[in-house]
Amino acid sequence: MIQMLQEAVQCLCVARYGCPPPGIEPGAAGQTCPRPVGTRRSTGTRRSTGTRRRLLALCAALTVTAGAFAQAGTGPEQAAPGAVRRITPDEAVDLAIRNNLSLESARITLDTKRRKSDLVWNQFLPALDVRGTLARDNKASSASGSAPVEKLPLNSLFPSGLLPEGTPDIYGVTTYSVEAPQWHVLGSFSASLNLSAAMGAGIQAIKRDYQTGLLTFDKAKIQTERDVRKAYYQMLLAQENVALLRESVAAAGRQVDMAQANYRAGRAPQLTLLQAQVAAENLKPTMDQTENGLKLAMAKFASDLGLPYDTQFELVPAEDDMNFIPVDLAELISKASSNKPDILELKQSILAAQTSRKAQVLQLRTPYLNLGWGLSPAFTGDPFKDGWGDKDMWRDSGTFSISVGMNLNSLFAFTKEGQGLKDLDANIRNLTIGLAQTIRGTELEVYNTVLTLEKIRITTEAQSRTVDMAAQSYRLTEEAYRAGLSDLDQVRSAQLELNKAKLGILEQHFNYLTSLIDLEYSLGVPFGTLSSSGLKSAGGAK
């Protein structure tokens, strides 16, 4: 769309004034304008020089705006299709932490626990409930009774003095019967608050759960960083392997040329030429398979970083120097047993489980206090005939209560509540056993890693000499073959040994680096603490 805007601006300016807008060369857009340069409308008057300048300035402004849109649309994480993106291990880690879907899920879980921890005080809020009810009786009912009528003045009926002084007037009584309304309107509002000794422990349990969530999220981030760094160096190794295969393909091509020259000169039979051609062709499927493996690794790497699967990467060039660092096995095991993310998470989980059990015990085995208040207004008239504003039609009733109680089931082990406490105890024991197993496994893991590092050091020193000797052997064998003094099998054998030696030293370099990364994870130290000093950079033997 932006390119179309730039092309439209160019065509407009060229069609109107015979020149492109400032900053664009004629034909730079790669499109043909709809009106040829130099044509004008036959009607109308010629624009003045000032008008032309103003419109040219407008074209230039539109061009600059289109360029700004184009630059804004290409951010640091938006590469043009087919472009190669240069990336370092640290940049890859930053992208993975921001975009990795697994981490995003862990981040949502942590946010949920953080929200619960921030609002833990809400358990001191009373439970409020309000409701209204419109009810109808299934059968009509009536009300009956006696009611007084007008009073009878006795003193006025009898002569004065006949009745004792102070004789009261009498009232007549009559019976009545009315039909009660079948429809009723009822309302209710209630508030209740439970207080117990378990509330403090419950707050602490929620805080512990949030702290456990922090450690779990940190462990997920550290694991993601470890996996991204190891994948990065695995791709570097794969690239070096591809480079070695390309060298082999090039060497096979040279052998075909030499075999053809020797065949033409009569120093080699046609069979030797055919063998060289077959060997060269056999390398192509291997080359294709290795390149496809590298492409798949890059696609998975891009997916882990939250980038399109077809993103092409340019990895940081690697050097050959490797500096072996001294390690103290006892010190490493001691640090790993207390600082490994997995161990820290398990320790925090045990503390959280113990706090939860304490809160459960206090809730089940200590008394609780309940404060309640309720209001229940009722309309005594017919809601469809009588006026709701008549206060005499309303009857108000409400209560305030204070209750003290205690759960007795938890006092018996065979009840559901008692068995729930047993289950919590068993869970704590399982977590404790899991912690002990993880510590022992970490000790063995560190021990194995240290042995691997020492083995790589010894192997690398031996293979470094092997690469030099294999390179010299291959060079001499190739010279002899060129002179007709060696056959093709000897050349291929020398080349195979050289490639094996180069690939072996490459694998040792990268294995050493990835082992250091695993060791850093086990020790709980930032990545690069050992690997940056232990290996300046891993690279291929040239």
Structural account:
The protein is an alpha+beta fold. It has helices at residues 2-17, 49-72, 89-99, 101-118, 154-157, 198-265, 270-304, 329-339, 341-365, 416-482, 488-523, 531-534; strands spanning 84-87, 127-136, 141-152, 170-180, 183-196, 312-315, 368-375, 378-379, 394-395, 398-405. The strands form three sheets. Strands 2, 5, 7, 8, 9 and 10 form a six-stranded antiparallel beta sheet that branches. The longest helix is centred in the middle third of the chain and has 68 residues, at 198-265.
Order of helices and strands: HHEHHEEHEEHHEHHEEEEHHH
Number of helices: 12
The helix/strand class is alpha+beta
Overall shape: it is elongated
Residues in helix, %: 55-70%
